[in-house]
């Protein structure tokens, strides 16, 4: 999208006002997924498979159905028939199969039946009376083993057209890209380092479990309240899985207690609706934490091989990577994304990358903040660190020497427009952290990171009130303060105070289709649409002023919240404030609103550089992160405090992934750590303050220069921390998480 | 299973409810008293989103039974503000953007208030260890700790 009038001087944008929903969120008033009630409401509960892989021989729910408190039991037969197609073409089938098992259960925790009863306790009790006969099948949970010739087949026919002949049926998608001649490049190198890396699956770890309240009548009309990153995708998917018309299901997004990609699909929502349809009453369904771990969106585990050649001066001559990602019992592991992002920060003459999407008996992976990118960055940036160590190069200088810039051909194909990687590296070099002395036992790590960012389908409406205030209706759930950035952008265009703007997350019946709050797209895409909707309203305000003054509309301009006569009419009339125009809008032509809808495509890619100091205790193997600095290009920070928050949150999740978090499966294929005590995310005493530097290299694709900031922050930490730990311990760490037992083993083998 | 009658005091108001002996205090607060500020993040006492105080002591309400509340004084996030005047912690949390999604905020506010009542001058390390039972996945704790420390300083100056 060509935008000729990019703004660079701002009144509201770049300030740090209180968020509009602050009061609700500090008083307990904000209503999240589990905070809804409805008259006549029943409570649901879901029966889950204890087996990693099993054929369902028989389900007998008669004893549960006989209980007077039980009002409905559903199994797969209570959902619509959805066609099966290979790969991601049949995603509705994949989601349905994940929401409620068909012929087989495919992972520990896979749903097989559900109950609605008069209380949550009664529903849970009833589950114990449902008898399921299983024929247990061989299972596989490891990505490398799932590709071996004798691995159990999860599902025949799941592979799409991209997979070369002769691969195991568990390999379901294949990606290959690059340019140049890598063999020639390796021949030019003074040093070639080749190594293999492994990362374990982690969970997004949002503190709010999935929760919903659904009501569906036999007339095919329904209502759904749920915690989601995108209520239109929930609407579309639930309608397909229940065989009803999309528009007949109205979905309202609750406040959302974290998502990080994990709430971009549905799990319990279609089940609540199916139960409601059968019981003819509203049904509330809330997951417990163990269900969240066992049956919702972990990220992929990965196994990766990297080979990079470098000259003595630090020039990369060739780079090659193979990335095998396990995404559970369904297609979707982002091996393609890992491959495309892994070398993206560098301007390479010769590069080749291969990505595999592999199925195993684990829950269906879901997006997690820059899905696929952190693992690839860990592998690539570890090898770069090793090359720097062996060639005696400064890690920031080496990266500056190879950094991609405007006009560079990206490793994944396109040519970059204006980007800010070099600026983040220069800021890293100038930052006091980079030159601060290290204590004995400490190591420092550097890493760059890349994420594409996304536009997506977006629709925003803005309506002015008689008193001169404005309401903005957006369709992207506010997951971290986006109401504030929308209000700032609308204020900037309308010229009225931030406080006079109310931003509402509209339900699916009140606005056109909106994509999910993902891909770091909200401030970019909903922001762009808010700006355009406000400009649309300003056009109408100018028309009313022109009519009042009896001058042509192109002789009216909008300045500081007022219509002002311009050109030959300049100074003929006093400026007309917005509130004076809206005060009598009913008599001058009716309500004044603005609207904009589009699929904006100028999201603007994003880069960051992180600096980490870590200290390793050789006695216990425990790692402490002692200092952390995030430097990232935001394009333009609309509300800098919330931009900092995104940087800090991404770093903290990366620290957890690097040092402690992992899905641990037993030989029986069951998840062994499905509560927060055993799957330990970082707590306050684990972390230092996280310093941030906001670099602003405007994105040419947004009227104010915004680049999304949500995801890139989790891309560098795995590698930066691994490099810091490797440098502190004096041994290269090739597997994440670097938990104390792995550190001790690495020190022992040194 | 027959239900038990409980009389207790929540945020200064005397309340009554009937509960199953298996129901937690959190269930009773949320489902019987409609006080949905306390959240269930884990149900195992690991996340602190359900933090309340019982007779002045900080507890995870998911680890206490509803019947155990008989005769106790319970304080929840809904009782932190003094009428329409926010508690200084609430003001600072908004000012510092010490929340992103806000699901952990009620529990963290209850826990932080409890900290400052016991220790008006905590070190950063003491604040971090006190709040180690309250998981936040969004913020990395940086702005939370800053908001708590600044509130503590402001309250000390005011007293």
From TrEMBL, chain A:
Keywords: Molybdenum, Oxidoreductase. GO terms for molecular function: iron ion binding; oxidoreductase activity. InterPro entries: Ald_Oxase/Xan_DH_a/b, Ald_Oxase/Xan_DH_a/b_sf, Ald_Oxase/xanthine_DH-like, AldOxase/xan_DH_MoCoBD1, AldOxase/xan_DH_MoCoBD2, AldOxase/xan_DH_Mopterin-bd_sf. Residues 27-138 form the Aldehyde oxidase/xanthine dehydrogenase a/b hammerhead domain. This is Xanthine dehydrogenase, molybdenum binding subunit apoprotein. It comes from Ruegeria halocynthiae.
UniProtKB/TrEMBL annotation, chain B:
The keyword Manganese does not apply. The lineage of its organism: Bacteria, Pseudomonadati, Pseudomonadota, Alphaproteobacteria, Rhodobacterales. GO terms for molecular function: 2 iron, 2 sulfur cluster binding; metal ion binding; oxidoreductase activity. InterPro entries: 2Fe-2S-bd, 2Fe-2S-bd_dom_sf, 2Fe-2S_ferredoxin-like_sf, 2Fe-2S_ferredoxin-type, 2Fe2S_fd_BS, Beta-grasp_dom_sf, Diverse_Oxidoreductases. Signal peptide: none annotated. Residues 4-80 form the 2Fe-2S ferredoxin-type domain. It comes from the Bacteria. This is Carbon-monoxide dehydrogenase small subunit. Keywords: 2Fe-2S, Iron, Iron-sulfur, Metal-binding, Oxidoreductase. It comes from Ruegeria halocynthiae. It holds the Pfam family Fer2_2.
